[in-house]
């Protein structure tokens, strides 16, 4: 059977912890989109591991698959694998031959484009990992796939086609001199060929590449449980998110099928668990109707730290929740839970269950609010509008809940749901009712045992 894990908000909902929670029952963990933009921290036997590409399950001895929908930077992949091996682990990672490769010039172009956009305050606030430019080349049919690294002739042919085009973009569109780039070899066919052919040899020697759909289907036929691990979140999905402030792939449940090569029926026939952070955070630019305070450089129109109406509250939640990017270290923007966003996410992915995280972070507040609906042009909306500019104009209609006192996460997790303070249960039940979806798990602390498990999807 399969369980698909989907971020219901803007990423950073605590997906890794939930993947981990159900991990014991899983044999294979497959990522279906994104690349090394997906920072996740895994704590295993007292050791902390920070990963951005390797699926978290690989740390616990599960087979980790990077599906065809992923974009793979072999430099990052092998760095992470080598680091894990140096720390005594033996991760088993397989990579789809159909997945696209992030080449050094993709990162260069990501940086240049963001810089140019920042002149008019239009930057997306990307992670700078070259994600967008790689998916652009995939869609433009000029990408290099992991399988191409295994074939010297094909690799050279692909590089000879694409590199001059990229060089022309750098020089003629952006007016830059390639020699002045931090990594001038990023646009040198021979240097790229040598480095990436070597990665191809390593992929081959370690028998890491697979036909992902066939590999996963065979695993399921052998009775194995597969988890599809989504990265990022619904509102930064390229189709269903707040375009253009999005990542360039589909973190929603449909992406799990397309991005691994199993049928939609396989994904839909299993469980789809929506991961919800009990409040909201966002890295990078774009609207956020329930935002408290703001972050200079990311919150639109917010030029000076300290000017937001609920600055202290935002600061408090950011510090309590450790809301700083895993990949970039940037402070995250903070807001109240946004129900129109969650209704949209639930419809797009068809959640069969929820995991609601970080309720401990809100403990100790006198009151907790949620954006229950929006008002746009005098009309009440229960779900997000499709146009980002309209979303920016939405005013959140807040609903107030009594706060709950601080509690001991380990005790509450071991005693179960009824041990959660009553006001926190009221909050959970409101979310379940509004989304018509049961909460399978409730995160009450950052540790592995600090989650109330009400139901295992396996
Ligand atoms: P990119 O994926 O690096 O192209 O970044 C595009 C947008 O997605 C930016 O706003 C990023 O901050 C956001 N983003 C990408 N990956 C993550 C993630 O793992 N968590 C939260 N935000 C992310």
Automatic annotation (TrEMBL):
Cofactor note: Binds 1 Mg(2+) ion per subunit.
Cofactor or coenzyme needed: Mg(2+)
Region listing for Disordered, in residue ranges: 116-136
Residue sites binding Mg(2+) per the record: 12, 39
Pathway info: Purine metabolism; AMP biosynthesis via de novo pathway; AMP from IMP: step 1/2
Domain of life the protein comes from: Archaea
PROSITE patterns found in the cross-reference section: ADENYLOSUCCIN_SYN_1 (PS01266), ADENYLOSUCCIN_SYN_2 (PS00513)
InterPro entries: Adenylosuccin_syn_GTP-bd (IPR018220), Adenylosuccin_syn_Lys_AS (IPR033128), Adenylosuccinate_synth_dom1 (IPR042109), Adenylosuccinate_synth_dom2 (IPR042110), Adenylosuccinate_synth_dom3 (IPR042111), Adenylosuccinate_synthetase (IPR001114), P-loop_NTPase (IPR027417)
Enzyme Commission no: 6.3.4.4
GO term, biological process aspect, one: 'de novo' AMP biosynthetic process
Chief location: cytoplasm
Residues where GTP binds: 11-17, 39-41, 332, 358-360, 443-445
The entry's keywords: Cytoplasm, GTP-binding, Ligase, Magnesium, Metal-binding, Nucleotide-binding, Purine biosynthesis
Subcellular location: Cytoplasm
SMART domains on file: Adenylsucc_synt
Assembly and interaction partners: Homodimer.
Similarity comment: Belongs to the adenylosuccinate synthetase family.
Protein name in the entry: Adenylosuccinate synthetase
Organism: Haloarcula rubra
